[in-house]
Amino acid sequence: MEKINNVTEFIFWGLSQNPEVAKVCFVVFSLFYTVILLANLLIMLAVCVGNLFKSPMYFFLNYLSFVDICYSSFTTPKMIVDLLAKSKTISYVGCMLQLFGVHFFGCTEIFILTVMAYDRYVAICKPLHYMTIVDRDRCNKMLLGTWVGGFLHSIIQVTLVVQLPFCGPNVIDHYFCDVHPVLELACTDTYVVGVVVTANSGTIALGSFVILLISYTVILVSLRKQSAEGRCKALSTCGSHIAVVIIFFAPCTFMYMRPNTTFSEDKMVAVFFTIITPMLNPLIYTLRNAEVKNAMKKLFCCLEQHKIF
User: Which residues make Cβ contacts (< 8 Å) with residue 153, sequence separation at least 6?
Assistant: First the structure.
């Protein structure tokens, strides 16, 4: 069948149609996005100034902060502008690019969190071989794998959507272009595409979540053999990782481990993994990590010496 596409732009329904609520959301999410940018940039600067790149954990933390900035930037600025805009539109090409970016950086973040769990597993369960197993060469290869995995996942999602015909309506009941809301607008049966999309996203989200749960369970069990001081330090580090994993994966699993259907709650659930998680990640890692705190102090001392503040 020949593809018919009469839609050149999509209209977002947005977070709220109430002008007063929209104004409050504008202030709140503008503040949240500022925190995302500043906090994650501070983490990246602290890792660089504190020379923490030698440690695999901070090597990956640096890239996690970078991915958080990119991930949130694909949806949040547009959503903030649309809260006060009369016309909440996005071009067809812009919608496909947004869909690609959200899934690319979202999937990459999932893989980075999985790699960080592996790093903690080796550090705690095989401490004597840690630097040999997780050397710089392997870190680079694992990092490359996270980017390649994210790209393959997102290119599959976009390819499945781009081939569909859109002839109207063009109103998306969301604040950004995601697969399920866009599929609802296609002028054809999307059952098979929906199954493939769910299998693609769901396998990655649930599979990674299960791997992470197993990893941290093994780590927690192995802590019984360690000294009280070692247990305390390991629990502090792993505690922050587990908190991030739960906050990120719980809403992701809810969104993508189900058939091609949308719920009214989807927008608020999406806020968690597109805005709340990127904002909380640096706060969780900083508040529960002595080395990052020390690196932050060093960074601020450095900035004071150069009279930046």
Answer: 103, 104, 107, 200, 201, 204
pLDDT band at 33 (very low <50, low <70, confident <90, very high): very high
Orientation angle between helical segments 56-73 and 290-305, nearest 10 degrees: 70
CB count in 10 Å sphere of residue 128: 7
Q: Are 154 and 107 in contact (CB under 8 A)?
A: yes
CB 216 within 8 Å of CB 241 = yes
Residue with structure tokens 């369960």? 125
- Of the pLDDT bands very low, low, confident and very high (cuts 50, 70, 90), residue 176 is very high
b/e for 243-260, b at 16 or more Cβ within 10 A?
ebbebbbebbbbbbeeeb
Instruction: Read off the tokens for 28.
Output: 């709140």
For residue 176 the two structure tokens come to 């950004």
118 closest CA partner among 214, 43, 42, 5: 214
Task: Check whether 231 has a pLDDT greater than 90.
Answer: no
Residue with tokens 């979540």: 209
Q: What is the torsional sign of CA 281, 287, 293, 299?
A: positive
Q: Which domains occur in the chain, in start order? A: 9-295 (1.20.1070.10)
The sheet carrying 89-91 orders its strands as 89-91, 9-12, 171-172
